[in-house]
Structure formats: C-alpha cells, structure tokens
Design a protein that fits this description.
Oligomer: homodimer
Number of helices of chain A: 12
Helix content of chain A: 25-40%
Strand order of the largest sheet of chain A: 4-5-13-10-11-12
Strand content of chain A: 15-25%
Structural class of chain A: alpha/beta
Distance between the termini of chain A: 68 Å
Chain lengths: 378, 378
C-alpha cells in the first residue's frame, strides 16, 4: 500500500504518483527493532515490507563513515563523510535500485529508468545481475564518458531529445503502455532503499546536520523517512536537521523555499557542472518543500564553489563527483552565515564517485627522464 | 624485521629488497586468533606487527563476495567474485596503501610510488588524508583519463620517460637519496595489506581456486601469505590453489612458469589492453614463481578474451577494468582444459573498477524524441 505524501490518500503498490494531486507516493512508516547482522538490510529487516534477499544484492550499503580532520579544523565543526561512492556502481543509487528491484521482480521482467548517469548505471547493473531487461533513458546532454558505464551492462540506452524534467512523467506513461516498470529517481521503493542511509548514520553518530545533495528529492525523502521511523521506534531521541543542498545553476527547491512558496517552479535554463543534480523540475520537489518546513533548511552553491569543494574533499582523501561536493560547498556557506554553530556534528552525504566525470578536472604534470630522475625532486 | 623471500636472510624494516640476491623481502609469518569486529583489521589484529589505527583508514577492505549464478551455470562451476572495486579509490591497492602508510608515518613525511594508475590514486588519496607529501611516478604511456583521479588529491605527478620495469628500482634508489619512502607494488608492508583478502575469503568460503590478476606479484604474494598464516594458525584446513592470471601481451611470469625456469625474463615489447598488469619485469616475479612451484598454477589470456570477459562480468552486474577481467578469461580456459574440475568453487579477485578506463568500451545508443517515445520501445 502506498500513501500520497500530500493528501494522504491510499493506493495499490503499482501506482507511482497520486492521481488526484500528482504528488509522489510513499510506503507507510515502519517501526521495529534493530537485529544483529553484518548487512543493514538484515539489521533493519523490521522496516521493510518484504524480505530483501541477499542473492539479489550486489553488496550495496554499509558504506564507511569517515571523520575529516582537516576540514573539521578549518571550519571549527566536526565533519563526517558518508561515502556512498563505495557502492557496487559507485553511487547511492544502488541502495534504491536493490530495494526497488525486489519489488519489480514480482510484477515485470522489464524495467526502465530516466537517468543523468548514476541511476542508469545502477539500474543496468542490477537488471543484468537479475536477468531483467532494462531500458535507460538518458538526456541528449549526457557526456559521452557517462554512457560506457551504463552500456557495458547490456542495457538498451535511449538518448532522448526533449525536456529532462518532462521525461520522468512521459516515461511512466509509456512504461504503463508497454509493460515496463520505471524505477525513476523518487520511485516509492527506491526511497525505501535510501532510508537505509539514515539507519547506518544513526547506528554510528548522533549528528546535528545531514547535508543532502538534492535533485529529484528521492534521496532527501528517503533519509528523512528513515530518521522518522527511527524516532517513532524510540531508537533515536532527535532527528538531525536535514539540509537540502542544490547547485545555484539549477535550484528549483531552493528558489521556492527561500521565497516561502508552497510549490516549486520549473527552472528554465538549468546550467551547472553538477550534472547529477541538474533536474529542472524535480518530481519530489514539493514533497521536499513540505519536509523543509518542519524545521529543515536549503542552501545553494555556485559552480566555482562546487569545484573548489571537490578539490578540498580530495585533499582529505575523498574523490567525489561535483554533485556530491555541493554538500561541502553549502556547509562552508552555512558556517560563514553562522547558521551551523561551531562544534556541530555535520554529516556530508557523498553521493557518487569522482571517477564518473573527470573532464572538468585540471591537473599539473611534470615530465622527467628516468636517467635524470633525481633532479625531478629538487 | 624483514626476511628475504629467497635466501631467508634477515634485515631491518627500512630495507626494501635483499642486498645479496635482489629478491623481495617480507615480514615474518604471523599466527593468531580471529577477534570480533566489523573491520578485517580488527578481526585479524593478531596478524599485524603494529596497530592499524582506524583514524588512518579511508574505509578499505571488507569488500563483498558475490556468487555469480549465470557464469556459474554456463561454466558448470561455482564462481564467486571478490569485488575490490568497492574500496575507497576503487581498487585493491587501498588495502596495501593503508597498511604501508601506517609504517611510513613512523619514518617519513614524504612518500612515493610508481604506478600504472590504481596505485597512484591510492597512495595520493591516503597521503592526502594523512597530510603526507606524495610523489606519483607514472609511465609516459598512461592514458590521460587515469591522471585526473591521481592529480585531484594534490599529489605531485611525474611522468617519466623510460622503462617502467626499471623505474621500480630507480625510484627506490632516488627515494633513499631524497628521503622519500617508496611504497611500490610489492613493498613488504603493502603485501601485508593484501593478505587481508585471504582472511576475508576464508571467513566466508572454502574455495578450491583463487584467480589473481598478477603484475608485480605483490597481490599474489599477499594472498598466499594470508592463507599460509591461516593454515599455520589452524584456522583453515587447506589452502586453495592459487592461479596467477596474466595478459598474453605481457606475461613474464607465465613465460618462465610454462618453460620450467627459475627466473623471469624481461618482456621486451609489452602490449595489452590490461594496463594495470602490464609490468614487463615484475619485481616479485621470481617470488611468485617459487610459490607457483608449490602446486599452484599460471595461465594467460589474449586481449580479445579479456574484453569478452569484461562484458560477461558486466552481464552479471560487475563492471571491472580489463586487468580484473583477465581472471574470468583465464578461468574459461582452465575449465576448457579440464584443469578446473566441474563443480569447483572458484573465486575471482576483481582488482579494480571499470570506471578507471572506459575508452575501449563500445556501446550502442538509439536516439529518440520525447514526442515519439512510445515508438522507441517497439
């Protein structure tokens, strides 16, 4: 059973959005206890409506949480990184794909998604692993280097000319017609996967702020739902403040939030280096706005700030894609604004690997001869 | 204390090779018990000569072991993949770098390595994390796309004209002169990191064969040492047969092994798509040969077989770099030769992520219009 995040009406599991208010649906809030186990799916089995079979897993989740001493000292806060780049296809998407695919297996042998890169690779990999045919719809602006990591798994890749925001809705429509279940960015079962990040964080740290790079809103909703479930289950005392982090070049949620609006508006000319969060009309945008009004916050960062933050994270040993670096860029702003207090425990959700998109990175190299190697170190 | 892998002479920890026979050194065999803990470093703390501090970790190790149903069925054996692509810099090198850096911190604030890509990124990341200055020596043939993932961490990259095999020795020499400790491919402390793969495998599976893509020989030696230690500690009954997997275009160890020679010879014109294992004169080549003679085996695969195996692994959900796919390519040959018996438990060590080198991958894309989407699925 699915529930509309806006009006609360209930629908069967195969629905994807509320037919009345066109807002996203979600599963009920689950409550339970933490079990013993090596994998988050086993420890939090109480919080899922079906059994998450290990044989369907590619080893997603249970990613490291690292303390970043240099950045912490510099910003006079305690910064932790939840490193989602260590998932099977090197982004957080794998958590959502794993859970959603368990649902898909019951209803279809054909699955699809609309992707800027990360989700396409993730769906392609799990579909291959499970022997399900997959269709990945990518935008015409996708850089070439993001295609091979999707195509290698044997998916059918369709490069679609047209508005990326609209493609979300169109794909669901065509999927119904053709018998292809689309597990897009904020699919209700995908969100159930993302909530496991909150579980893992709560097991290790009582954070003050969790910074979440936000595009469709699915990840933000997932982490929020996870914390709400922990709170309702008396497993945590307080939910950390959740910070929605967007790129200034495509910030529909920030725009509405900062202007006190109830609904997001489409960004007409999205333009940011953070491709993975460049959704001009996020399908869970209004749902995220509703969560933000419960005492959470939203901030943006410019492309130059994002690239600077990417370098700074690498100086602490973490090479993330620009969309992930938005988290640190936003934290620096919030510390400067004194919105984040000194000494706070701040968790960055590092959503995807830097290897995914290396074109914008400029580095210096020196050429040496092996016969003259000693001189190169002078 | 270090021991020569050939003559058994003993040397202080700062030595890198035996000054008498020029063979690699290793730490003594450790024995112990398995402790409780989430991390392999804690569970196997008995097997390390110093404490491996969690604060120096980037979250390496404890990678997933996956059963591959499709390939298993196809080859009539049970194939498992140890997925080292889920390490912090997306290759197995991180295990070695983590352990070696703990040693480096005691003796130097400057570290170096000679790399085809994976090791450079790994050393650069850990050096950044630990605030140690790093020098990465790369070969002039390194593809451009492998440089950004090293340079981003702030290392000094030196592109060296000259023989890559020779660079290993030359770097150690210059390092001594300049006070830079080089943790190259088969550095004794690096090997101590790699042995943790054997520990993790033994915890989960009683394998018959472990297939190890082999370049310098450091990884092969590490996994072997780990199993020997487990056996000496009565933690396992039998050591699986270890298979050294090389690319036909650069197979110095296979050449010597198949001809029954005691020593490897330099490959004059190495040429393979599997860059990460293209070492024409592996510094632990003779040491691996000695291990092979204890009842282990070596096999090669051609580039077209490697690329085919890369695709087949992706069809099971795993996108690995060509050097890792050598493992599957070799297994297919050994099954065809009936060297590997039907029903055997075979473990592939998948050393590094496919994202590291995407240029050779060719994929098909179809262009569609959003207004005509339905027709694209016909």
């Amino acid at each position: 059973m699915l529930i509309c995040t806006h009006c609360g009406r209930k629908y069967p599991a195969e629905f994807l959005r509320c037919p009345i208010c066109n807002e996203p649906l979600q599963l009920p809030y689950f409550e339970g206890k933490i079990k013993k186990g090596n994998k988050v799916w086993k420890r939090f089995a109480d919080f899922y409506p079906f059994t998450l079979l290990p044989k369907n897993s590619l080893g997603e989740g249970d990613t490291p949480l690292l303390y970043l001493p240099k950045l912490s000292q510099q910003l006079k806060i305690n910064i932790y990184a939840k490193n989602e780049t260590q998932n099977p296809t090197w982004s957080f998407k794998d958590r959502g794909t794993f859970v959603a695919m368990q649902y898909v297996l019951n209803i279809s042998r054909r699955v699809g998604t609309v992707s800027t890169g990360n989700m396409g690779a993730s769906v392609a990999a799990y579909a291959a692993h499970l022997g399900v045919k997959s269709y990945i719809l990518v935008s015409k602006e996708i850089p070439e280097e993001k295609l091979a990591p999707i195509g290698i798994y044997g998916s059918e890749i369709l490069r679609v000319m047209g508005d990326y925001g609209e493609l979300y809705y169109k794909s669901i429509e065509v999927g119904k017609e053709k018998g292809i279940y689309f597990i897009n960015s904020d699919n209700p079962f995908r969100v159930e996967g993302y909530k496991s990040i909150a579980y893992e964080l709560a097991e290790k740290i009582d954070g003050d702020y969790v910074i979440i790079p936000t595009s469709s809103g699915g990840l933000f909703r997932g982490i929020h739902k996870g914390y709400v479930e922990l709170k309702r289950s008396d497993l945590i005392e307080d939910i950390p403040e959740l910070i929605c982090a967007q790129a200034a070049g495509c910030s529909p949620i920030y725009n509405a939030f900062s202007q006190g609006k109830e609904r997001i508006e489409r960004v007409e000319h999205p333009n940011t280096i953070a491709h993975a969060i460049r959704n001009p009309y996020p399908p869970s945008g209004n749902a995220v706005l509703r969560i933000l009004k419960e005492g959470n916050h939203c901030e943006i960062a410019e492309d130059h700030e994002i690239l600077e933050a990417q370098k700074e994270l690498a100086k602490d040993g973490l090479f993330v894609q620009p969309a992930s670096a938005v988290s640190l860029a936003v934290v620096k702003k919030l510390v400067a604004q004194e919105k984040i207090e000194k000494g706070s425990k701040v968790i960055l959700v590092l959503t995807g690997a830097g290897l995914k998109y290396i074109l914008p990175i400029r580095i210096n190299i020196r050429d040496c001869s092996i016969n003259d190697l000693s001189r190169c170190f002078e």
